[in-house]
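Case study: ATP phosphoribosyltransferase.
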Amino acid sequence: MTGRPLRIALPKGRMMDEALLLFGRVGSEIDAEARDSRRLILPSADGRFEFLPVKSGDVPIYVESGVADAGVVGLDVLEEGQQDVLRPLDLGFGGCMLAVAAPADAAYPLLPGGTMPRVATKYVESARRFFAQKGMQVELIRISGSVELAPLLGLAHWIVDLVQTGRTLAENGLTVVEKVSDSTARLIVNRASHKLRLDEHQRLIADLAGALEKSA
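Here is what the predicted structure looks like once written out:
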């Protein structure tokens, strides 16, 4: 074992909350004093881990670079970034799907007159692979904010975005026309750290898998 705890990158928000609940079930809840502070590195009370709250898209970057030994992130983020990390465990929570959505009266998958579809999305690489596999030529428009606005304002014909309940789509007059992929939270591990700290990583994976099995 090295001189410091395993560093675990977590995505800020609901997925981080669920991940911390899972770590708590294996005896590694956040130290009470740290929970109420503004510290950027949060130690676990048992001393095994240091949790790093970061933006979702940064989790696999931190892990691939070795700044974090492991992390929790949605499969959608992994598939978009294609970082070279190990993916030993599906954690099962944070379920959603990446989907193509369009206005209820929009044509799909072909537009009238052979018009090339414009597709707005945060997930440009995932969308590019999806449409290429279907043999569809589209113009992809990278949007980082509210993607649902794009069809309403005429910027795009369709969108590719994450869907959980579908409520936001419905409120904006959109409907899912095709699923791209399913997504859940995954445990990811830095390759070098896994080799150097194998026993600790194996224990981490076994503990989390055991907690998930008990709650199934």
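For the exam, be able to explain this: The chain has nine helices and eleven strands.
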